[in-house]
Design a protein that fits this description.
Layout (H helix, E strand, L loop, with lengths): L3 H7 L25 E5 L6 E6 L6 H12 L8 E6 L2 H5 L22 H4 L6 H13 L4 E8 L6 E3 L4 H10 L4 E4 L23 E9 L3 H18 L4 H4 L12 E10 L5 E3 L8 E2 L5 E5 L2 E4 L5 E4 L11 E8 L3
Parallel strand pairs: 2-3, 2-4, 4-7, 5-6, 6-8
Antiparallel strand pairs: 1-3, 5-7, 8-14, 9-11, 10-13, 11-12, 13-14
């Protein structure tokens, strides 16, 4: 039987192009919750948060938040919060097994429903989410910084609501915006509470900055965080100037996810060496096999989104399929 360890061993290892910040210095914040820092301007405005490390091996966000904290960035209006999520998984990161510390017990970005948070189930991720929850409940605008298993262009993940799609368009970066409904096996933080309520003024975005350990992902994380804070009106644009390193695209491309491709066995494999954002011209084109099942594109001009073998498992989403939207 094929094992995940064997699959990972056969995949090329990405070079680690960034330094992992020592975030232990940020443990004791001013919120009563470890690794969460909040600064109030004393002036009217929104509560805006930049969050890193929802997954423990996604270092670009940690670099961005560490950089902003070290720079002493403070709000000129409203309230600014900077924090780290799955600090337990991050602490156990090992370059020899770089894919293993996404989480410790369960995915921290699949637990954000009241029934789960209020339920009896226990895990280290749930304990952290429960500790953070009262604070997250006070946030008006959230940018959750993530990165990807494979080398791919950055993606802004909006969820299905028009308010988040509009916010992504107002930011104007990155080039590719993914409109999706999340995952069947749990709710993301960016869809939690008011963020996922179309009637609420709260809003959230999730940025996938690129491959986890790429220097370019670090730069995208800082650039996007800076633009998010400027757009929210909580910081002086001049204070963010050092981080605005990315050229904004002339036009964004919006891709609506129509369906996931979920592995039903450990004998799943792609039919081509996809890296993401490939546009498959014809419906019926083979894109993967799962045991004896042949998986084909369901329509013309089908976009491949976030394909990866690095977390293969039964009932795990291996890639998603989408259509280009006219926006």
């Amino acid at each position: 039987m094929t094992t995940l360890e064997a699959i990972r061993a056969a995949l090329p290892a990405y070079p680690i192009e960034v330094s992992f910040p020592d975030i232990a210095r940020w443990r004791e914040g001013n919120t009563g919750i470890d690794y969460l820092h909040s600064f109030d301007s004393g002036k009217a405005g929104k509560h805006v948060m930049i969050l890193a490390l929802t997954h423990g091996n996604e270092v670009s966000g940690a670099i961005a938040v560490d950089t902003l904290l070290a720079a002493g960035v403070r709000p000129t209006a409203g309230r600014l919060s900077l924090g780290f999520g799955n600090i337990g998984a991050y602490a156990l990161f090992s370059a020899e097994n770089a894919d293993a510390t996404r989480f410790l017990d369960e995915d921290m970005n699949r637990v954000w429903t009241p029934s789960t948070l209020d339920g009896a189930r226990q895990s280290r991720e749930l304990a952290r989410a429960r500790a953070m929850r009262p604070f997250i409940d006070t946030v008006d605008l959230l940018l959750d910084i993530h990165s990807m298993h494979e080398a791919s262009a950055p993606l802004m993940m909006t969820g299905p609501l028009e308010k988040a799609i509009a916010l992504a368009a107002e930011l104007g970066t990155p080039e590719h915006v993914i409109v999706d409904k999340g995952h069947a096996n749990g709710t993301r933080m960016r869809d939690y509470g008011g963020f996922g309520d179309p009637a609420s003024a709260k809003n959230a975005l999730l940025i996938e900055t690129g491959q986890h350990f790429a220097g370019s992902a670090r730069d995208v994380a800082l650039d996007c965080a800076a633009r998010f804070l400027i757009h929210a009106g909580v910081v002086a644009e001049a204070d963010m100037a050092p981080y605005l390193t990315q050229t904004q695209p002339a036009r964004q491309k919006f891709v609506e996810i129509t369906q996931p491709v979920v592995a039903r066995s450990m004998d799943f494999r792609f039919s081509q060496p996809f890296t993401g954002l490939e546009v498959i011209e014809k419906a019926g084109t083979e894109i993967a096999r799962d045991g004896d099942e042949v998986i084909v594109t369901p329509y013309d001009n089908c976009v491949i989104v976030q394909p990866s073998m690095r977390h293969l498992g039964v009932n795990v989403t291996m890639m998603r399929l989408g259509r280009l939207l006219n926006r």
